[in-house]
Amino acid sequence: MLYDVPVRFDELCRELPRLLRSLPGLPAQRRMAPVPRDGWKPGLLPDDARPAAALLAVFPGPEGEACFLLTKRASTLPQHSGQVSLPGGAVDPGETVVEAALREAHEEVGLEPGQVDVMGALTPIHIPVSGFVLHPVVGVLAARPAAVPAPHEVSRILEVPVAELLDPARHTRVYVTRHGFEADVPYFDLDGERVWGATAMVLAELAAVLGVDVTPQKSARG
Predict the structure, then answer these.
(1) Model confidence over 42-83: pLDDT tens digits?
(2) Of 101, 108, 136, 164, which sits with the fewest C-beta atoms within 10 Å of its C-beta?
């Protein structure tokens, strides 16, 4: 389903439960996967990987357009520092992935779990660099949240219109040199930030659920 721009929050909420019942999965994720992606075997979720969960929280913007939250991780964190991600983290013993996603969103940006209506989930992704399997949970909030970044964890909160995610002009790629080899790194240009890696792969599947097959355009080296 390809939405008109801007994407209306009320329309999206009506459609999400149905759309999330049939996921595009790996083909959509691969559209934003770096090449090479060290240690990644597409479609494989290792038995010894630790489960993690993230919340893709959708809410209404000022004009009723659908928006979602991203965070920019603090530069002092030991893993993925300075990167843009969904609020999330490891699943604690005894938790479900939904409980973990809601807890992490509360800890990182102050979202109250009771305010989130869980719609479903996207396809899990193995993150080799950290040894996690990430379970993206999709939820909606009836109103724009008063999100507050957790000190020492989150340096910035991004409120991104869904229409921005679906805009082909925001789908690009950069070629970088890593350990002496060239890597092709697709990313979303959202709110002035480059969103790549596992987060971009999650968002590519969301875009596909909404009817947009992401095709990153070539960019300069950087």
Answers:
(1) 989 999 999 999 999 999 998 999 999 999 987 565 455 578
(2) 164
Cα 10 from Cα 50, distance rounded (Å):
35
Cα–Cα distance, 15 to 92 (Å, whole number):
31
Backbone angles phi, psi at 63, to 5 degrees: -105, 15
Q: Show the beta-strand stretches assigned E in the chain.
A: 50-60, 66-73, 84-85, 88-90, 116-121, 125-127, 132-141, 154-161, 171-178, 181-190, 193-195
CA-based end-to-end distance of the chain? 34
Residue 173 φ/ψ, nearest 5 degrees: -150, 160
User: Are the C-beta atoms of residues 119 and 139 closer than 8 Å to each other?
Assistant: yes
Q: Report how far residue 54's alpha carbon sits from residue 134's, in angstroms, rounded to the nearest whole number.
A: 7
Asked if omega into 46 is within 30° of 0 (cis), the reply is: no
| 18: its two tokens | 């149905």
- Return d(Cα 85, Cα 68) in angstroms, integer: 12
User: What are the structural domains, with CATH classification, of the chain?
Assistant: 9-38+48-209 (3.90.79.10)
pTM for the whole structure: 0.93
Spatial contact of 49 and 131, defined as CB atoms under 8 Å apart: yes
User: Could you give phi then psi for residue 202, rounded to 5 degrees?
Assistant: -60, -45
* Model confidence pLDDT, tens digit, residues 87-140: 999 999 999 999 999 999 999 999 999 999 999 999 999 999 889 999 999 999
Task: Name the 3-class secondary structure at 199.
Answer: helix
